[in-house]
Design a protein that fits this description.
Blueprint: H1 6-15, H2 28-34, H3 38-67, H4 76-98, H5 100-106, H6 117-128, H7 133-161, H8 173-188
Length: 197
C-alpha cells in the first residue's frame, strides 16, 4: 500500500470497518444514555470528534517526545487521561460560552467525555499499532466520526421507536442493545473494504 494513502485508509477504516463503538464496544455508556434525541446526540458527537482527534494527536506528541525519551512509557495511561481531561475542560468551557442550551442538554455527559473509554482507547490503539503523527490524528478523527455516526443512527432509530409497539420486557435498554447489535452486524458488511490492525 502506498504510504501516502495509508493515513487515508486508517481514517476510513476507523469510521467503518474498525468502528470504535460497534467493533470494540468502547464508549457505550454515553452512547446508550445520550442517544435519545438527535440534537443532543449531534452535539455530543461533534464534541467527541473534536476531542478524540485532537487528543490522539496531543497524546502522540507527549508519548513520542516526552514518555519515550524519558523512559516513562509505563505512565502512558495516567498521562493520556490527564491530557484528555485537560482538553475536555477547555471544550466544556467553550461550549458553555457558545451555546448554553447545548451545554444544558449535554449535562453530565460533557464532563464524562473525560472518562469515555473510546477516547482513551483511540490513544492506546495508536500506541499499540505504532502510528505516526498523521496516522494517529486520522485514526482519532475517523474514530470520532464513526462513534458519532453510530450515536446519530441510534438517536434516529430511538425517536422512531417512540411510536412503535415494543414488548414491555424489551423497552428501554433492552431494545437499544438489540439495535446496537444489529448495527454492529451491519458494519461487518464493510469488513472486506479496509482492515487495520
Amino acid at each position: 500500500m502506498n504510504p501516502s494513502v495509508y493515513p487515508v485508509a486508517i481514517f476510513f477504516a476507523a469510521i467503518f470497518t474498525n468502528n470504535i463503538l460497534l467493533t470494540n464496544y468502547l464508549g457505550m455508556c454515553s452512547f446508550l444514555s445520550v442517544s435519545r434525541e438527535i440534537k443532543t446526540s449531534l452535539g455530543l458527537g461533534a464534541a467527541v470528534i473534536f476531542v478524540m482527534a485532537v487528543t490522539s494527536a496531543l497524546n502522540w506528541i507527549v508519548y513520542e517526545y516526552i514518555l519515550i525519551p524519558l523512559d516513562l512509557t509505563y505512565l502512558r495511561y495516567i498521562v493520556f487521561i490527564i491530557v484528555i481531561a485537560a482538553f475536555v475542560q477547555i471544550v466544556e468551557m467553550i461550549i458553555e460560552r457558545v451555546s448554553e442550551t447545548l451545554y444544558a442538554a449535554l449535562g453530565i455527559f460533557l464532563p464524562l467525555i473525560t472518562v469515555n473509554c473510546a477516547i482513551l482507547g483511540a490513544s492506546l490503539f495508536m500506541v499499540i499499532r505504532q502510528y505516526n503523527f498523521l496516522s494517529s490524528f486520522m485514526y482519532g478523527f475517523g474514530s470520532g466520526i464513526g462513534w458519532s455516526i453510530a450515536i446519530l443512527a441510534m438517536a434516529g432509530i430511538r425517536q422512531k421507536l417512540k411510536n412503535a409497539k415494543i414488548p414491555r420486557g424489551l423497552e428501554g435498554a433492552g431494545i437499544t442493545l438489540i439495535i446496537t447489535g444489529m448495527m454492529a452486524l451491519a458494519f461487518i458488511g464493510f469488513t472486506g473494504m479496509i482492515k487495520i490492525s
